[in-house]
Amino acid sequence: MKTKIMMASRKLKIPRKTNFWSVTPTPATHKKEDSIPLLIVLRDYLKIGDKEREITRLLNTNHVKVDGKIVKDRRFPLGFMDVLSIDTFDHDFLIIYDRKGKLISVANPDENKGVKLLKVTKKTVISKNRLQLGFHDGKTITTDKSDIKTSDVVLMKIPELQIADVIKMGIGDKAFITGGSHVGETATIKSIEVKKSSGHNMANLNEGFSTIKDYMFVIGSAKYTFKIPEKEVAINDE
Fold first, then answer.
1. Integer Cα distance of 41 and 47 in angstroms
2. What are 85-142's pLDDT values in tens digits?
3. Structural domain of residue 23, as residue ranges?
4. Contacts of 29 (CB under 8 A, 6+ apart)
5. Cα(118)–Cα(80) distance, integer angstroms
6. What pTM value is reported for the model?
7. Per-residue pLDDT tens for 111-120?
8. Which of these three, 93, 109, 125, is where a domain ends?
């Protein structure tokens, strides 16, 4: 299924006047407006091939994986913190936001190998000792870790989807900002303002600004920091 390129998500970092058509992401994980079709990442971001058929041929080799699992659908949606790997390349690629709010691909550091950060967006009690957790990328798991709360970030082993650690949102922690005027920046939490009204809770940062708490995605605490590089990468840049 195709979409007129002028109607594609504004979070895609693609030329709007070069081509008439874009690709519609398959309804799968991330929301349409928060995702990039795999074809766009491989062809236009990483520049692995010039034509759609070249990308389709690559996908049929089973060499392309998202979060450690083989993906063949060229329309598969990639979003924030997804890990893309191609068997013929030495390193993985991480999808993050740049400072204009565009989704970009960066080389995923070796320190992050085999893990992914997932923000808890939903928490449901399914039995006395079991919880179902829903994450920002649409994944769900069940767990007996009762101390996990919404807004916590889970360090998940992939592709097993096993929790390796939980990063709480606390004073002094590092967070990546996913929305607002400071999108794409990393900042240190100074304090959290909890509103008694229906207004958004706010996070105050050591860097001298504040933002909505929902925009905060914790990436580091005193015992662990997930490394996020700043440089966007394409294959022909290397």
1. 8
2. 999 898 899 999 999 999 999 999 999 999 999 999 999 999 888 999 999 999 999 9
3. 2-109
4. 35, 77, 79, 82, 137, 138, 139
5. 9
6. 0.87
7. 999 999 999 9
8. 109
48 with 72, same domain: the answer is yes
Q: How far apart are CA 117 and CA 88, in angstroms?
A: 24
Q: b/e per residue, 60-95, with b = 16+ CB within 10 A?
A: eeeebbbbbeebeebbbbbbbbbbbbbeeeeebbbb
Distance CA 43, CA 100 (A): 21
3-class SS of residue 186: strand
DSSP label at residue 13: -
Claim to verify: residue 156 and residue 184 sit in the same structural domain: no
Look at residue 65 and give its three-state secondary structure. strand
Give the type of residue at 26: T
168: Cβ–Cβ under 8 A, 6 or more apart, which residues?
A: 149, 152, 218, 221
Same domain, 96 and 123: no
What are the beta bridge partners of residue 21?
Answer: 4
Q: Three-state DSSP class for 181?
A: coil
Q: How many residues does the chain have?
A: 238
Examine residue 60 and state whether it is found in any structural domain, yes or no.
Answer: yes
Count of domains observed in the chain: 3
Last residue of a domain, one of 77, 92, 109: 109
CATH code: domain of residue 214: 2.30.30.30
Residue 226 located in a structural domain: no
